[in-house]
Specification:
Elements lengths: L7 E4 L5 H12 L3 E6 L3 H13 L3 E6 L5 H15 L4 E4 L14 H29 L2 E6 L3 H4 L5 H21 L4 E6 L7 H4 L3 H10 L8 H12 L10 E2 L9
Parallel strand pairs: 1-2, 1-4, 2-3, 4-5, 5-6, 6-7
Helix pairs in contact: 1-2, 1-9, 3-4, 4-6
Length: about 250
C-alpha cells in the first residue's frame, strides 16, 4: 500500500527539476499524476515515461498556468481522465536576475504571473472538487528568498513572499472543510540549474548554510510526500524549510 493510493495529484511545471522529482515520488506512492508543462514537451513526456516504467500511472497535460481559461480546461481534462484533483502542487516557476533599477515591468509581471497568479488560478480551479469531497492537499513551492530576500531577485523574493501569505490565508479559509494548505521553502538544490552555475558561486552558497551543503532532490521529495500524505494531517498554513539552515522559522 502506498501513502497516496487512490489519490490524483496535479504537479505544475513537472517537466524537469523539482516538479519532475515530486511527480515521480507521488506516483511511486500510488497517486495518479497529472504532469503539467507549458513549453518543455519532451521533458514532460520523459517524466510520464519514467513513472510508467516504474509501474505508476501518469498523463501529460499542457497548459500555461498563468492563463485562466487554459487552467480551467486542464483541470476539466484531468477530471475526465482521473477524477478531480485531490493533491495540487504549485511548482511552476521562472528565474531571472536583475538589479531593481534595471528590472523591467515586463520581467516583474512575468515572475508574478508564473508564481502568484498561476497559484491563484490553479487553487481556484481545483477547490470545487476538494470542497465537495471535504478533502484536499495543496502544496505551494515557495522558497528561502521568501524569508531571507536576495539581491538581484527582488521580484522573485516578493513573489515567494506572496505565496507564503496566500498559503496561510487559504489554510484558514478552507481548513474547516478538510483542506490542507502548506508551503515548501527550499534553498538551492542540486540539479539542472546548479550544473550551469559557477562552482565558486555555489561554494559561497554552501558556506552560508549552517550544514555547509546544497540540498538534494530527495530532500524536497520527502517534504512534498509528507505534506501530500496523511502523515501531515495536523499541519496547515505551515512552511517547511528544507534549506540547510539558511532560514530558520
Amino acid at each position: 500500500m502506498g501513502k497516496l493510493d487512490g489519490r490524483v495529484a496535479l504537479v505544475t511545471g513537472a517537466s524537469r527539476g523539482l516538479g519532475k522529482g515530486i511527480a515521480m515520488a507521488f506516483a511511486a506512492e500510488g497517486a495518479k499524476v497529472a504532469v503539467n508543462f507549458n513549453s518543455n514537451a519532451a521533458g514532460a513526456e520523459d517524466t510520464v515515461a519514467k513513472i510508467r516504467a516504474a509501474g505508476g500511472v501518469a498523463e501529460v497535460f499542457r497548459a500555461d498556468v498563468g492563463d485562466a481559461a487554459k487552467v480551467d480546461a486542464m483541470v476539466k481534462a484531468i477530471g475526465q481522465a482521473f477524477g478531480g484533483v485531490d493533491i495540487l502542487v504549485n511548482n511552476a516557476g521562472i528565474v531571472s536576475a536583475s538589479p531593481l533599477v534595471d528590472m523591467t515591468p515586463e520581467s516583474w509581471d512575468a515572475v508574478f504571473n508564473v508564481h502568484v497568479r498561476a497559484m491563484f488560478l490553479c487553487c481556484k480551479a481545483v477547490l470545487p472538487h476538494m470542497l465537495a469531497n471535504k478533502y484536499g492537499k495543496i502544496i505551494n513551492m515557495s522558497g528561502s528568498f521568501a524569508v531571507s530576500g536576495a539581491e538581484k531577485f527582488v521580484h522573485l523574493s516578493a513573489a515567494k513572499g506572496a505565496m507564503t501569505g496566500f498559503t496561510r490565508a487559504l489554510a484558514r479559509e478552507v481548513g474547516p472543510q478538510g483542506i490542507y494548505v502548506n508551503a515548501i521553502a527550499p534553498s538551492m538544490i542540486k540539479g539542472e540549474t546548479t550544473e550551469k552555475m559557477d562552482p565558486a558561486f555555489l561554494e559561497g552558497l554552501k558556506q552560508r548554510y549552517p550544514l555547509r551543503k546544497l540540498g538534494e532532490l530527495r530532500d524536497i521529495q520527502a517534504s512534498a510526500l509528507f505534506l501530500a500524505s496523511s502523515d501531515s494531517d495536523f499541519y496547515t498554513g505551515q512552511m517547511l524549510c528544507p534549506a540547510g539552515g539558511e532560514i530558520m522559522v
